[in-house]
Amino acid sequence: MLSVWLNLFIMSKIISISNQKGGVGKTTTAMNLSASLGVLEKKILLIDADPQANATSGLGFSPDLKSPNIYHCLSKNRIEKKDILTTASPNLDLIPSCIDLVGAEIEMVNLEKRENTLKLCLDEVKHNYDYIIVDCAPSLGILTINSLTASDSVIIPIQCEYFALEGLGKLLNTIKIVQQRLNQDLSIEGLLLTMYDTRLRLSNQVVEDVKTHFQGLVFDTIIHRNVKLSESPSHGKTIIMHDASSKGAINYLNLANEILNKNLTKKSNE
User: Residue 92 and residue 94: Cα distance in Å, rounded?
Assistant: First the structure.
């Protein structure tokens, strides 16, 4: 029995979805990658660590301070069973966000080991899940540093548009600092190209540039622009639950499979 628990503990992986640039598909990726991994029979916990709470509302929950949320967890330094909500998507649980999470940055400034607050919270629950996905705030503040410190790896969404690489250097530098000072085991899971439009020459140029500069770090899966993908949050559903046959759903299922295969290969090589 002990070996089973140890195996579960070792297998759990925490992945942050991060980019300080807004509008790159970060929350869309956090929601739909989590849902896709759940459909592939992995037990998933999605943490909405963005004060905008878009992942929370996108899954059909109200970002309310009175309801359980990640702000309460960080305030009390622990995650309790009541803090975790069950979503309509298979195998997917959620710790919601709320607007008061903005205040957490200020409240945590004077805390000792403030960068490890989320990590300490997750240590209590991570053995219950195969993957924990953290939707980071679009900034490089203390909440994002907390997420990176708690994570095993980070996925960086990059939109296939003109300013695609703007600010990426700063994010990669922040990841390097976290690796050096707070979490030496943090790795880059991959760069994910989003909002790809096959009709635009610019989109193809961005894909080519990113793959040239970052080579093996870029996921093979590319997320295409898709109407169903854009409208699913307004229905409080993931793309899998909204329209499983859409291009967006297929893209995110392919991404989930790519991540699972990548991690399976990595473990077999260790």
Answer: 7
